[in-house]
Design brief:
The protein has 192 residues and is α/β, with parallel strands linked by helices. It contains three helices and eight strands. It has a four-stranded mixed sheet with strand order 2-1-4-6, with no helix packed on it. The protein has a four-stranded mixed sheet with strand order 3-8-7-5, with no helix packed on it. The site of copper (II) ion (CU) has 7 residues, from loops.
Amino acid sequence: MSDHASTPSRRRVLQTAAAASGLAIATGATGAQETVTIDMTDGLVFDPDSTEVAPGTTVVWETVGSIPHSVTAYDDGLPEEAEYFASGGFDNEADARDGWPDGSVNQGETYEHTFEVEGEYEYFCIPHEGAGMVASLTVAEGAGGDGGGGGGGPPKVPTSALDLTLGLMGAMAGAIALVFFFIKYGGSGEEE
Ligand SMILES: [Cu+2]
């Protein structure tokens, strides 16, 4: 019979399926958490003072000069369901103001907060509010962390999530192909 011809073909199919699965899994592992850094400078500014990030982004404020600053949210400058945030861990704006200089971010230090709720955030620096050290942050689906300047139509799904989905789909397809192959050809009892 011509059964012998199927042996090399079967091996090649198995290798191909295994390679495809490995590649898909590797691709899915690239989804990384976003971090955005905002400098607080001796020029008494947040740099940049207007930033747009995707939900889940961790924003890190760093005092890059010698003058201490604070990162303090305005009570009325938050989306309704967002939690209050301020360096020093204060629960509201009044406590943060009363507590200063507790919560100061000194030279080389950082304060960070992860933003999950979409919307507009307004915040300021307690000692330099009068000098105009105020800033805003927008949390929006599809916002990128890069300096691209914002294109026209951002995708609904963040790139990392899309990669993960495609990776999982590829891995599942590879596994299903393997199982299917064994079911169809593995149990035929034609081994010699
Ligand atoms: Cu300041």
